[in-house]
Amino acid sequence: MEIKQILSDFFKDSRTFRVFPNKKAVDYDIRDEKKEEKHYVSDNIEENLSYIKKVFSYPVNNDIVIRELVLKGEKQAFLVFIDGMVMGNSVDTSLIQTLQKLPFIENEEFEDDSADIMERFISNSQAQAVLDFDSICEEINFGSCAVFVDGYKRAFIFDVRGWEHRTITRPQNEQSIYGPQEAFSEMLRTNTALIRKIIKTEKLIAEGIKVGNTSKTRGVLLYINDIANEQIVNEVKYRIKSISVDYIIAIEEVAQLIEEKPLTLTSQMLLTERPDRAAKALTQGRCVFLLSGSPRAIILPTNAFELTNVVSDDYLRTPFSNMSSVIRLFAMFVTILLPGLYLAITLHHQEIIPTYLLYSISASRENVPFPSIIELLLMDLAFEMIREAGIRMPSPIGSTLGIVGGLILGQAAVSAKIVSPIMIIVIAITGIGAFATADYYIEWTFRILRLGFIILGSLLGFYGIAVGIFLYSAYLGAQRSIGCEFLAPIPAYKAKSSAEILIRKTASSKELRPGFLYPKKIRRESRVSRNWKK
What residues does each domain of the chain span? Predict the structure, then answer.
């Protein structure tokens, strides 16, 4: 019974959420959470000032700036903001100067004149009146300026953000010769603007979601309202809002917290730094999540074939993109299976090797003191060390390190009879195949799988490799990404679809959106998209 339960847990998801056509969204139980008592703004300016100083540890916390003012009619007021996160000119001109020019207003003239003040006298594009201190502190921490005025039971929040940030640059990890050459930055609104610049429609929804109980890191969930499946959107929102940790720093943490099985080798989330790739995913019916401070976006749901695609395929002609796909697919199998196949052939199936090649392999290994598997593992470990060191070394030194490690150490190892020359060739081809992959995360998957196939090939030969391929394929077939099968669209779907697996279709043949997403609108283009051929 225990073995049956272990196998069931291995091949099945713990949550059984799936996406179905024309079904209502799944209902969830409301989590019992203890809500802390809120503190509200007082009409006494001294009480508000004392509370703000206590919350922000003023003056010990020297980043906090509190500017006290005296308005007309001897009315007391003060501003509070974080130095370095606001634009100083905006605070001076649109806030301090404007507040000092406000006419004297008696408290009894208006029952609530806060809206009148913002509409008639405040020269700032984004302003709001807030009642509770929790929201006020959150806005201050995010770069806004809060203004407290004596006699008002609310604070005025003004958007004067102006912290330093990186400008829009070219993609570093997803480079493409064709197509847009812009990448996401760490600014949340800049990233949403990059996507809206591509998808110009009012149907594009950007829902704000805060992640982190203490950090309250701001994020945005984007989807096209008349295309995306409501079940997928609700499931994504539920998972993100259910994250209960104190601090969220990067979007990679969010991806790990919302995927079904964190220990699976293949990532179930697609991270991209390209706005055009995120925009394409939105038009297919997927969701995109952006997080403040992270220059990447999560695309979900995804599938195994989407992880192996590159952006440049969308901008190449169909024969060229198919050729590129075949080369990458071949490189993927080479980097995963070549070392294991080499061990399987040399240790268990020598009869399939041509005679002269067998003599050459035997002669090259004549003076090598280690068994083939130890020799291969040592070289593979050395190659991984060189690659990791090259990534973390400064750029001018990284290229030198690659030359020294790849050429000098490899030649020295062969001359010292520690490894055979053919093993150097196998490791070099394996490494080149790894560099041809489309995604950095999937490259890590290939590394771990390669180690497993090395062990299986050395112990059981071709039989072990076949068993490994079967088990991992069955494991992938049981996985899901936000309710969608991970190997979709290989399973048979009743819904019509134009989803691509390996062979890419022409631009005029992509009439339908991926059927496994069950979008509200399955058709993405007219039956005859090239009207000039009518």
Answer: 45-158, 188-302, 315-481
